[in-house]
Specification:
Structural class: mainly alpha
Helix content: 55-70%
Number of domains: 1
Radius of gyration: 17 Å
Strand content: under 5%
Number of strands: 0
Number of helices: 6
Distance between the termini: 26 Å
Shape: elongated
Length: 158
């Protein structure tokens, strides 16, 4: 699994930081996550807007629709970056993981307030959804090699 994957050559930026090659499995994982995020972002902006609005906690000091639209734009951007900027995969991986952490309070709020959305119409279903959020964080870090290629203490930067 340590072989180099050349599935992603679009968006190769010579100014991007050089990274060790990644496996085919990680590349496929990154591309699937990118497609998932792009689709989710588009749904925030179009047909799923009302459902996503149900996940915005009441304590957020911004208009709920604005939050949904902004998070949709971020998801489209992150998804696109995962798909077409393979040389930037590590920083994009960290940003994607941070995004998944940032939106977690919305999932907690949906559970705590018993809000139905996306077919999550029971506390059990909403609890299962909460357990899936760390999986998304791990997926972002693994598929981009962000954790593997993170700077380490005492390491020199070329």
């Amino acid at each position: 699994m340590g072989e180099r994957s050349d599935l992603s050559v679009i968006g190769t930026d010579p100014a991007a930081p050089a990274r060790p090659p990644t496996s085919t499995a990680r590349t496929i994982g990154r591309l699937v996550l990118g497609a998932f995020l792009a689709f989710a972002g588009i749904s925030h902006l179009t047909f799923g807007r009302e459902e996503f609005l149900a996940q915005v906690p009441g304590w957020v000091p911004a208009n709920g629709d604005t939050v949904v639209l902004a998070s949709g734009v971020v998801e489209v951007g992150l998804g696109g970056a995962l798909l077409v900027l393979p040389r930037w995969r590590v920083p994009v991986g960290w940003l994607t993981a941070a995004f998944f952490v940032a939106i977690f309070p919305g999932n907690i709020s949906q559970y705590a307030t018993h809000t139905d959305a996306f077919g999550l119409d029971s506390d059990r279903a909403r609890a299962v959804r909460l357990l899936f959020q760390p999986v998304l964080v791990i997926w972002a870090l693994w598929s981009t090699g962000a954790w593997r290629d993170r700077p380490r203490r005492g390491a020199t930067i070329d």
